[in-house]
Amino acid sequence: MGKEGKPNFQLKTPKGTRDWAGTDVVLREQIFSTITEVFKRHGGVTIDTPVFELREVLAGKYGEDSKLIYDLADQGGEICSLRYDLTVPFARYLAQNRDIQSIKRYHIAKVYRRDQPAMTKGRMREFYQCDFDIAGVYDPMLPDAEVLRIVKEVFEGLPGWAGKYTIKINHRKILDGIFEICGVPQDKIRMISSAVDKLDKSPWEEVRREMVEDKGLDSTVADKIGEYVKLKGGREIVTRLLEMPEVAGNASAKQGLEEMEILCKYLDIYGVLPALSIDMSLARGLDYYTGVIYEVVTEGSAPAVSKADAAKKGKKEKKSTDPDEDRSNDPTLGVGSVAAGGRYDGLVGMFSGKPIPCVGISFGVDRIFSITKARMDASQIIRPNEVDVFVMALGGGKDFTGLLAERMEVAKTLWDAGIKTEFLWKQKPKLQQQFKAAENGGVPWAVILGQDELEQGQVKVKQMGLPDGHPEKEGVMVQKSELVQELRKRFKGAEEQVLVDRTVASA
Amino acid sequence: MGKEGKPNFQLKTPKGTRDWAGTDVVLREQIFSTITEVFKRHGGVTIDTPVFELREVLAGKYGEDSKLIYDLADQGGEICSLRYDLTVPFARYLAQNRDIQSIKRYHIAKVYRRDQPAMTKGRMREFYQCDFDIAGVYDPMLPDAEVLRIVKEVFEGLPGWAGKYTIKINHRKILDGIFEICGVPQDKIRMISSAVDKLDKSPWEEVRREMVEDKGLDSTVADKIGEYVKLKGGREIVTRLLEMPEVAGNASAKQGLEEMEILCKYLDIYGVLPALSIDMSLARGLDYYTGVIYEVVTEGSAPAVSKADAAKKGKKEKKSTDPDEDRSNDPTLGVGSVAAGGRYDGLVGMFSGKPIPCVGISFGVDRIFSITKARMDASQIIRPNEVDVFVMALGGGKDFTGLLAERMEVAKTLWDAGIKTEFLWKQKPKLQQQFKAAENGGVPWAVILGQDELEQGQVKVKQMGLPDGHPEKEGVMVQKSELVQELRKRFKGAEEQVLVDRTVASA
Fold first, then answer.
1. Which of A112, A403, A462, B341 is least crowded, fewest Cβ atoms below 10 Å from its Cβ?
2. B32, B111, B425: best mutation site toward chain A, by most A Cβ within 10 Å?
3. Rounded to an integer, what distance in angstroms lies between the CA atom of residue A93 and that of residue B18?
4. Contacts of A28 in chain B (CB under 8 A)
5. What is the C-alpha to C-alpha distance for residues A109 and A107, in angstroms, rounded to an integer?
6. What is the C-alpha separation between B191 and A180, in angstroms, rounded?
7. Arithmetic mean of pLDDT over chain A
8. From the record, what ranges are coiled-coil (chains A, B) (predicted)?
């Protein structure tokens, strides 16, 4: 402790973490609730795994990003690490519970990456993921189509997102086929795939330079790749690729394209096609994907990167192994994407030798939160709490008792009825103080007690914030014994009025 | 990796942690939801703090239990530890945000203690706490009374708990006064307080032995303490103590008793008194309490401890500093309590020098979960998911197409209407398979598609599990274009039928 009882360290949360409070946490809870509702609509069940896993479980799953894993100190006993994502713990769970052959599971929880934080971009060391994954053997592309339907429902359920998101999609087998056709050596495919994945942030020239100079790819091979990865568009891209003889002649590409054809047929039924962009430059960094891969981007979520910046970054990355350096190109997350996922048929088998095919999606809620908040207009007021009624005492002067017992009794009656209620924790509060407290909390209703009125078994109900001249501006007297019914009636009336107002406003 | 792709380590969660899945996680979510609703009813707002804090924040807050704190490995940068409870992070938050002078905050999150796990008793290394705390300067005992009202609403809202819980309550100032009166030296008060706290698990003889032999207390002083800590009962205990001249003459005890008198008056209004047991043997281990302290116990939650067991444990504890030994007497949690809390007016000031008085409660959800589960009878079936409708294809044989596109289209229509819907991800599923899938998920409604019926614009709606002879046992045909409305009408009808059935059953 320092002097004056102050501690001699800076009072803060650890680097890359933050407290969530006030209307921020209310809005984030609303986003969780929208997402959870969609997950449940599709039969999702939740699983809650521990925040840390045995270190061996995470080992060998994240490639060079393993250096970002948070380890627990060795205090004797098992060696553990904080989870890096929700996918590997899910695969561990499936491998461990051999009786489970299929499941639709969702998981909303925090994950941990000892990355260089960039708060303004919404990149933190502790952040939430909302994952939905389907495990099990089914007829081709049916679970994949449903995951993308979930993406549509989530973004169309969030305020300000309808029509403002794009699902970029590709297929690992198509990509692998293209690399084969272009003549990429087998042992360089993953490396070249990672380079291609940077095309959403870096210009082709920079990616080509990386392939040729850093990864040692033949420059004619790189140029061939350049022709393919430019392809981008709707369902017709699949047809165009299948019409190219060298592509149709490659087994891997052909299988991937046939799966994409089926998927597009299903997405047409589900109304998802308009949001889809088949994009040959999408590669996704993680090794474990084996089929479709996708990322959701939105207006303004992809930062513009100048060529100079990109070149600078490219150089930096080449040399750096320091996890505290800027990693704007984090391939596991993709700056600019608000959700990402794909099919991974081999991960569960890595743990148990029992392969269970899986496909899933992870929503980056912290980023979705920032964008949603920016899109909401001032009229969409978020209340800090949900209190419906503030119970007040009317009176003042020497004889004023404060009516504390009476306020408590009314509050008890309302709580018993499940009505969210507060009153001021003061023996003799001023009326103005009570109104101020109600207004600060945005509480819509006041129940006002007066000595004389109570003696006649009556209390006053007043809707807050009514305009001058409104017939009930000053409130109405109701029987105390009928207070709960009277309030419920008024809550309902006010809700209907809001609907009417909205209809009028939008007409 | 071992042979056959199996890893060469045991596939499990770390010691003292578990996965939550299936109906367990559904029931736990219901408990969270009941608790959250009560918290919001009283104006609570939530705050989400990071899972780890700077180690200095936790230092010096938990006495000898500090050895149970999980540290993160030093990987360069700040030194952090996993949170041990939600109270210290809350105090850190208040101290850090100097503009916040008052708040009602709730927080439902996991905490971490490197304790010896005892799964059967519900003692884990990772477990949930549900905390509600009120910070701010208010008139005496009003926030304290509201916290205890919250306790009542939570337990009466949980299935099987009404009338089956007791709130044990005491006051630090009364206890300190009693120790002074008995002649406990000032520097031994906290130590003797901890010994007294064990009376819920150990017999008086054992606690007396600890005080005299281990803590070096004069045996006549111990015997005097024995007389006071036997006192237990309702509101009359306060009156009895105030009638004892030596108690009324002690400033600390008098102040505590006067506060208890006010509290009892308020709890009478709130209907909480019947559940209250004023208990002079309740001491609570944590140093930071300064006023009322309470613990909630329930039938069967307090394990019977034989004298021999207690003596054995007493001896063990005396010697042990090993965190991996059995610590059934963990004073921070109290085996047998399902919720605990109290007033702590000094904790925030430890961080900032700005004292903010606080009072709060922490619900031990994992233990509440185990007891609730044991109390629920078999008729209270918990469904693993919430799906309302299973869309099926009727047919078979060579010409059967499987009606996949048609099933997808109906599912899309229902999802668009917000109805939770599944279908089997197979091109040509057998009807029996589809019924089995619906039954496994406990799905209450089937929509059955047949080629001929579809051509007439019709589909069949069938409520699952109707008894033989019921007029709608075989389902009813409805217009496909009116499916959503027809289903909504039937959902509502079925809900009302459940209410009628319950009324008949309980009459």
1. A462
2. B425
3. 10
4. 48
5. 6
6. 74
7. 88
8. none
Q: Contacts of residue A15 in chain B, CB cutoff 8 Å?
A: 77-78
**CA–CA distance, B243 with B238 (Å, rounded to integer):** 9
**A278 vs A210: CA distance, rounded Å:** 24
Q: How far apart are CA A64 and CA A61, in angstroms?
A: 9
State the virtual CA torsion across B143, A481, A453, A467 in degrees, nearest 10: 80
Domain A22-375 class, CATH top level? alpha beta
Give the N- to C-terminal CA distance of chain B in Å, as an integer: 63
Q: Give span(s): CATH 3.40.50.800, chain B.
A: 389-506
- CA separation for the pair A416, A368 (Å, rounded): 38
- Look at residue A324 in the predicted model and tell me its pLDDT: 35
A21 to chain B, any CB pair closer than 8 A? The answer is yes
Say whether residue B70 is in contact with chain A using an 8 A CB cutoff. Answer: yes
Tell me which residue has tokens 């020098």. Answer: B353
Residue A86 confidence (pLDDT) above 70: yes
Predicted confidence (pLDDT) at residue B259 exceeds the cutoff of 50:
yes
What are the tens digits of pLDDT across the range A351-393? Answer: 888 889 999 999 999 989 989 988 887 667 788 889 999 999 9
Least confident of A137-141, A476-480, B71-75, B503-507: B503-507
Q: If you average pLDDT over residues A179-196, what whole number do you get?
A: 91
- What is the interface pTM, i.e. ipTM, of the complex? 0.87
Residue showing tokens 């260089």: A116
The Cα-based distances of B442 to A146, A308, B429 in angstroms read 21, 59, 19
Tokens coding B86: 């939600």
Yes or no: say if A104 and A44 are a contact pair by the CB < 8 Å rule. yes
Can you tell me the distance from the alpha carbon of A450 to that of A472, in angstroms, rounded to the nearest whole number? 18
Rounded CA gap, A250 and A260, in Å?
A: 15
**C-beta neighbour count of A159 within 10 angstroms:** 15
Q: Are strands A103-112 and A126-135 parallel, antiparallel or unpaired?
A: antiparallel
In the predicted model, what is the mean pLDDT of chain B? 88
Q: Which residues of A touch B353 (CB under 8 A)?
A: 4-6
Helix H or strand E segment including B348: helix B347-352
Helix then strand count (H, E) for chain B reads 18, 16
- Residue that is written with structure tokens 């060391």 in the block: A125
Give the integer Cα–Cα distance in Å for B253 and B260.
10
Tokens representing B120 are 């059967």
The identity of residue B143, as a single letter, is P
Give whole-number Cα distances, B208 to A355, B218, B228, in Å.
61, 10, 13
pLDDT by residue (tens digit) across B472-482? 899 999 999 99
Q: How confident is the model at residue B129 (pLDDT cuts 50, 70, 90)?
A: very high
* Low-confidence winner among A118-122, A240-244, B22-26 (lowest mean pLDDT): A118-122
CATH topology of domain A389-506: Rossmann fold (3.40.50)
Phi, psi of A48 (to 5 degrees): -115, 110
Q: Residue A136 has what DSSP assignment?
A: S
